[in-house]
Amino acid sequence: MQLELKDRKAIVAGGSRGIGRSIALAFAAAGADVSICARGEESLRTTETDLKLHGHRVHATTCDLGDSASVRTYVESAAEALGGIDILVNNASGFGASDDEAGWAASINVDLMASVRASYAALPHLEKSQGTIIHVSSIAGLAPSARTPPYGAVKAALIQYTLTQAAQLAAKHIRVNCIAPGSVEFPGGTWEERKTSNPRLYNAVLGSIHFGRLGTPEEIANVALFLASDAASWVTGQTIAVDGGQMLT
Questions:
Q1: Count of helices and strands (H, E) across the chain
Q2: Whole-angstrom Cα distance, residue 142 to residue 21?
Q3: Does residue 1 have a pLDDT over 70?
């Protein structure tokens, strides 16, 4: 099965590093024009350069996904630069781990509300293209999350939002799905940092994964590519865990 996105217009919100970067690169390699946004300028420009190697239209700009006006401005600028929107990927996370006001606010404002804001802004374009939305949640939203209560609860809300959106938008032929990654390791990411800062936690998580290793961003991107493609034309309202068996423990 060959997965193609030739001439599709894709937005990856939170697309400069890690999973978002890999999704953006996978889409570009499959033929899509791609827009990415992030807060960090340096990683944004590095990924922009790599995306341009595929020879398609690329749009990249900084954006505060915690701010409604910034999200609206970004989505409209991306739609103008690409000539429309066929695919919206909501990947940003505030990584609200602490069980306090700050942790809950960070998770709600970015992990959940950034996805809502971007969906609102992109909807008129997605209606024209009969496009698709992909949310990136976490397996933390599928089970108790004692270590990171805000993160787990808000990721669960994103899974529920996927179901609701899919039901709301099915009549418009807009598909909405969700990916729930397990523990993914990449340079500069949380798990690479914890390998040295908290080896006990890292090794405990590693030991819980039946495949005996943490995942890679590319493995998440492969599922996003499937969900964005015509191969998934009758798939909507689903959350797919991509975790190497981590949830089986």
A1: 9, 7
A2: 24
A3: no
Angle between helices 113-129 and 149-169 in degrees, nearest 10:
20
Give pTM, 2 decimals: 0.96
| 212 class by beta-carbon count within 10 Å (0-12 exposed, 13-18 middle, 19+ buried) | exposed
Of 242, 136, 227, 224, nearest to 174 by C-alpha is 227
Q: Say how many C-beta atoms besides its own lie within 10 A of residue 227's C-beta.
A: 24
Reported as type and span, the H/E element at residue 62 is strand 58-62
71: left (phi over 0), alpha (psi -120 to 50) or beta: alpha
Residue 155 or residue 192, greater confidence: 155
Structure tokens at 17: 């590093």
| pLDDT above 70 for 227 | yes
Q: What is the average pLDDT value for the chain, to the nearest integer? A: 95
Cα–Cα distance, 244 to 213 (Å, whole number) = 8
Rounded to whole angstroms, the Cα distance separating 24 from 237 reads 22
What residues act catalytically? 151
The fraction of the chain above a pLDDT of 90, given in percent, is 89
Which single residue is written with the structure tokens 């937005």? 11
Domains in the chain, ordered, with CATH?
9-185+216-244 (3.40.50.720)
